[in-house]
Amino acid sequence: MPRSRTPHDLHVVSTETITPHLTRVWFTGPGFDAIAARTQTDAYVKLVFLRDGVDYPEPLDLGVVQETLPPEAQPTLRTYTVQQVDDESRRFAIDFVVHGDEGIAGPWAARAQAGDRLPMMGPGGGYSPSAEADFHFLVADETALPAVSAALRGMPAGARGVVYAETGEPSDEVALPLPDGFEVHWVRRVGEDHSQLRDAVLAAPWPDGVVQVFAHGEAEVTMRGLRPYFRKERAVPASLASISGYWRHGRSEEAFRTWKRELAAEDEVAPVA
Which residues form a coiled coil (predicted)? Predict the structure, then answer.
């Protein structure tokens, strides 16, 4: 018997164009309660994009779908971080990077209208700003800026820190909810795939005291470029280091999951200190 995997039901409240390549979609529905109950600021969800023309079972159960429908009928899952939550209005926002017709989620967000429905799995998460840290070092590209925004909103009183954020164009910079004691440095990517984020972070002054790190974005930059620096050279302990890739240049999310498993296998052989 297939394992039950029943998504939460969401529908679109409204959409906003934040930058030329960023669309914010506000959701509500029964899935809101799961979002509101989150304890981590990096609450991520898996959005379920159903294929046109497929007769899915009602109620939708992804376990049943996986066991009973052919590969070409399987939904596509994409992972996104909740950008902000409006408890009073019972709605939450997810930001989608949009590059024309490229991909699945971006074009969907560009066309989304109030009332459109979208199933959601989750949320998950593993990071929250620590009140014990003396300094918070946040690193992100466009895909991780929603998580950085959520982290900044969740900072403890009196927190200090810095954000290093990379975009492809100046028009893609977003207004971050910086608390007092924080500053942001914008880094420009050269072309589609030449990141300067690692170099900018390595050249940054290292703060005194206990440092908590949140570094997410393109996987080669974060996992191979920055993780050894933070974990080995700066000796940030695992308990204070949230470092992960959200995507990898030139790979779909499915191929990226395979790459992450391969990287995890490498770490089992040669773990990061």
Answer: none
